[in-house]
Design brief:
Its EC number is 2.4.2.14. By secondary structure, the chain is α+β, with helices and mostly antiparallel strands. It contains 15 helices and 23 strands. Strands 3-2-4-1-10-9-11 form a 7-stranded antiparallel beta sheet, covered by helices on one side. It has a 6-stranded antiparallel beta sheet with strand order 5-6-7-8-12-13.
Length: 474
Amino acid sequence: MCGVFGFTGHPEAKQILPTILASLQHRGHDSCGVAGFVAQDPSCIDTLKEMGRASRTMNPQKLEKFMGSSFIAHTRYSTRNSSTSVREVHPHWAQSMQGRMVIVTNGDLLNVEELLEYLKHRKVKVYTKNDAEILAALINVQIRLRGLSMGNAISEVMGLAQGGYAGVVMTEDDPNIYAFRDPWGIRPLHFAEFAVGGQLCRAVSSETCTFDLIQRYDVVKYPDGKGYTSREVGPGEILCFSEQGVPTSSFLQTRVPGRIGCVFEAIYFSRPDSLQRGESFQALRERMGRELFLEAPVEADLVTAVPKGGIPAAIGFAKASGLPYNVAILEEPSTGGLRSFTTNPQDRMALAKMKYSILRDMVEGQRVVVVDDSIVRGTTAKLLVKSLYENGAKEVHLRIPCPPYNWPCHYGIETKDPKTLISHGKTNDEICAALGADSLYYLGIEGLYRAIRQERGLFCDECLSGRTPFSVEV
């Protein structure tokens, strides 16, 4: 669930980049990185990598060595490898006769060992099992040993690489930026164009919230008030663009037609102000809350949310129920908005304990409905239920606007061990007892898809249903 970004053509690129990285750090706060051309040698690409959150580690001063308006950037959420190793931080690169190629990716590959064997057979060494490094090496093999163009090389690699991923590539010998999305469309990627002065700025991003940030910087507004036009990069699409000319794209022919992504993006991952098919995730999540009330009404005195993820659905639940929505759970500002879900296991419990506080005068003697976006491991929910009772709540009713997270995800989320999932193999009553609540209800799968107004077959929902979009063993 990393954040990837690439853009070209904006004269204030270096000044904007730290803000853009900060806007994507909810997708990964283990590390962040940037690649671009350097001022000392304009033909040379270099990288800047930092451990920790982008909002604390990236600033315009650190980007002074770069020049020009073409950059790629990344925020990392570790799903397979150690988050403490600088070697794992994106961007990754490969060296060829034509110069350096750099890459950032989001997602996970399923057939890593097979791909490593492919590289070993061709005497290509990689130093980690990081997906981006493997993809960089594979692309370089197609260019160096087979003489393919960048676009054709990426297409060949997408035919080899199984999994859910999206990536952005730039090279020293090519003015274009290349963006690609896995043939199933599991990991998100969006493309936008801006008019900046007399030239075009183009960008790709995991989420559209970054485009809203860019449009604040001297872009020409369209009649609808927006400063850009945007679209999704399609499943299996390879998009080639620069600040000049018309973007070109090609499609991997084995893509699954129509699939548009991971359903957990709508439930949890994406920022509420990002868009899916023209509609904000805030609106989708409020509808989830309304569907949740229709399925599971409850006698209570108030509705509250686990901030920030539970707020939209709690608003929807409160509107539908007629119950007051009160702020009864506060997020500790010192945690900086860190998500316990994406925090490494060693720090997860400590963060959950310090992240929230309860307003006693809001809950004392009250029957409280608590809405969170999801329950995956149960760490936060168990602590909050206990704390609500300690602060005088009469009853605590958990309402979750998605089905139980029963199954591992192998496509870019660190939930590969089912034993860590609180709902795996348990009944609803058993989960409720483990969390200590008076009642627990999850929104059903049909209600979820009614809320997001999409056909179920268009999404990967393996974590909720156990249905895999792939025909390979994992």
